[in-house]
Design a protein that fits this description.
Length: about 290
């Protein structure tokens, strides 16, 4: 392959990366995630900032990769961009809620969530001189609805230790930056580091949970472990597990109702703020392009 052909391929790959990164920060939220709602100040500020940065990055990428642009020195190291999809499960710590309503404070246990589908994008870099370490930025989106259900409540309400909560859509948007470590097996001339690459990652995240009546913004701890296989010199397939933990999530406007019965919607006991920890587990598979 000629040097000019390789240059064209590198530029085409960079164009793809720039477009994907711009789309990542400009992902639109569902209609019920309108930023005008009360308590969404942080998101309302962040969205236009990241939008402007995304458009600027897209424009800059198109400009520096225009036909006839001078050749630039290549940054050493390995870059990659990828997409993934899989399943999302809410963990046990999110099943316990503390809710404050006009009648008092109550503890709800055994809250159940629906299994969701997760999808996302990632962009990463591994060092040139120490290829075992790198950084990865990621964004993913999932939906884990709360079903209409009976829950255990304490203290008892009117002599009953059972109450109910209504069904609620729950959208979860996660952004994370992780320190990555990897190791390579089955080295060959085409992939000197190794075609089979187990990897782990840890870092901070920022998560927005959109409920029916409110949204919550929290920092999180993000962990992941995965296995990547370089099917081609610049294309990999991977499978990974992701863990996300938030503490002290707060959602306003949460309803507590009488136990479910055969006569339709149960009567409202009260409405107030719910506070809980939230952990989620994601299993995903994906494809990445490396250069």
């Amino acid at each position: 392959m000629s040097f000019k052909g390789e240059r064209r391929k590198m530029r085409s790959g960079l164009r793809v990366v720039v477009v994907l990164v711009a789309l990542m920060v400009l992902i639109p939220s569902p209609r019920n995630m309108a930023l005008a709602g009360g308590g969404d100040t942080a998101v309302a500020i962040a969205a236009p900032i990241f939008g402007v940065l995304g458009v600027a990055a897209l424009g800059y990428g198109m400009w520096i990769n225009r036909p006839g642009a001078p050749e630039r020195p290549r940054i050493p190291g390995e870059f990659y961009v990828g997409g993934f999809a899989g399943g999302s499960f809410v963990g046990p710590t999110a099943r316990n809620w503390n809710i404050n309503i006009p009648d008092g404070a109550f503890n709800l246990t055994d809250m159940k969530y629906n299994v969701g589908v997760v999808g996302g994008l990632k962009f990463g870099y591994f060092c040139d001189k120490f290829p075992y370490a790198g950084l990865e930025a990621e964004t993913n989106f999932t939906r884990n609805d709360i079903r209409m259900q009976n829950v255990n409540v304490s203290p008892a309400i009117s002599g009953s230790s059972i109450a109910s909560v209504p069904a609620q859509r729950l959208y979860i948007w996660t952004m994370a930056l992780k320190l990555m470590g990897r190791y390579g097996f089955f080295k060959d001339q085409e992939v000197p580091f190794g075609r089979l690459q187990p990897y782990v990652g840890i870092g901070p995240g920022f998560v927005v949970i959109y409920g029916q009546n409110d949204s919550a913004k929290n920092f999180s701890l993000e962990l992941q472990a995965g296995l990547r296989y370089m099917a081609l010199k610049k294309v990999s397939i991977f499978a990974e597990y992701k863990f996300s933990q938030q503490w002290n999530v707060e959602l306003e406007g949460q309803e507590l109702r009488e136990p479910l019965g055969p006569l339709g919607d149960p009567a409202l006991i009260g409405r107030g703020k719910a506070k809980f920890d939230f952990d989620s587990h994601k299993f995903a598979v994906g494809v990445a392009y490396h250069w």
